[in-house]
Amino acid sequence: MKPEDVLVCKSLVEFRDLEALSFPTPWSARAFGLVLAAAERKVFSLTDFQQKLIEEIAAFERQVGPIDSDEVYYSRWVAALSGLLELKGVFGDHSLMAAEEAVRAALAANAHDHDHEHGIDHADMKLSPSPINRECGQ
């Protein structure tokens, strides 16, 4: 089962098998979860999101070419979600960028060399997360 199968439902009540969904990356699952949470709270409908996603994919394909990876596909989910949230007045692009900068600052403030153990493998951590509001490939 694919996440886009959920978008054909009129409401989340119709779709009960969320555990059967699989995602290529943790961030794509989170993007999907944000869409469902916003729809569940009536910020927008799944139909609204589906339409915005179609528009985002079409615009990307006109400008860049066919979507050829899961990363590119889910970047369109994030773009559609951001666009709908801005359209609905939940927040603007400047708010998203400010939140992203706050996360970067918090990560930088927590960076440290140390000889103690606290359950975090710093070798696997990236100090600077990938921007969440960007075109794929930038």
Automatic annotation (TrEMBL):
Residues 22-109 form the Nitrile hydratase beta subunit-like N-terminal domain. It holds the Pfam family NHase_beta_N. Residues 118-138 are annotated as: Disordered. InterPro entries: CN_hydtase_beta-like_N, CN_hydtase_beta_C, Elect_transpt_acc-like_dom_sf, Nitrile_Hydratase_acc_put. It comes from the Bacteria. Transmembrane segments: none annotated. This is Nitrile hydratase beta subunit-like N-terminal domain-containing protein.
